[in-house]
Amino acid sequence: MLLSSRSSFAFLVGFAAWLGAAAPTLAGPAPKISFSEYEWSFGEMIQEEELAHTFTFTNVGDAPLVVTRTHTSCGCTAAIATQGAIAPGAKGEIRVSYNSKKTFGDQSKVVTVYSNAPDSVTTLIVKAKVKRDLNLPNAITFGEVAHGTPANQETEISAEKGIDFKIIKVEGDAPFIKASFEEIPAKAGESQSYKVMVSLTGDAPVGPISNRVRIFSNLAKKPVVEVPLFGTILGDLKISDTKVNFGSFAPGAAQAVVLKIDAPATHPIKVKSARTTTPDVIATLTTLKDGLSYEVRCTVSGSKTTGRVTGKLIIETDDPGEARRELPMMGSVKN
After folding, report:
1. pLDDT averaged over the chain?
2. Number of independent structural domains in the chain
3. 248 and 282, same domain (yes or no)
4. Is CB count within 10 Å lower at the N or C end of the chain?
5. Helix or strand or coil: residue 290?
6. What does the pLDDT average to over 266-285?
7. In this structure, are residues 206 and 148 in contact, taking their beta carbons and an 8 Å threshold?
8. In this predicted model, what pLDDT tens digit does every residue of 127-156 receive, in sequence order?
9. Which residues contact 102 (CB under 8 A, 6 or more apart)?
10. Is residue 293 part of a domain?
């Protein structure tokens, strides 16, 4: 039976496609990178210590291999690769260094290796368990303290086992912070521990405090460490909030925050002025009852069309004990 010309053409096209699929694909020579290991653990290390490990690889392909670049998952890790072409069967290296910096606990960092091999991306992992060389509190917190009233806090500071640690002196970063220390009898095989005593004197300023206690020691890498100190000194003047928070708002909106200010009848305080440190916010003071009750209205200027609202609201009074109060301002103008 004879095929039509159209059927013959379709048959030939199909047969040619079958031949193309059945014919083997001949690949040219290509490099291939193979590492002896893809993960390494440094084990335990202390903060701000730097360690390094060398990953070895072999070109198991049949064409020259070139490591084109490396990329690390954070600035604490660096990778340096063998430069130039690696012949088939030859070896190369990736030297990876890791600086623990101020990290703490289990760490896992990724190094990505790019090459001219067909599977051009290889992932290496370095791990470590970082221990603090010094055991410090995250902060010394006083909470709320009445103005004119001294307050005291104690904390313990020690080093990891095996570290020769001695405190030389401690000090606060403001005149109203007093600090001292004393040794705690060391247990057998343990490093020296210290009790650090911190006091706020009665002349600490009214309002939130955010300061530092400095600890001077014999450690070469950390001759001075700082522990944050927080608290709020309460005065007789009561303000309805500790900050001026405008939140997030659209440009051109009449965004305003009103704060209420009250003084006790037994101790009248005259609010003399209210102003801000930025032209983006206008502060308007209203006297409700002289010496006893006031309002401050903070309004974002209509010219503020984008970006963050920052600065401080400054309230000034006639009371020597709390002549000036500063409240942070925050907010964001979004389209």
Report:
1. 89
2. 3
3. yes
4. N
5. coil
6. 96
7. no
8. 999 988 888 899 999 999 998 899 999 999
9. 47, 48
10. yes
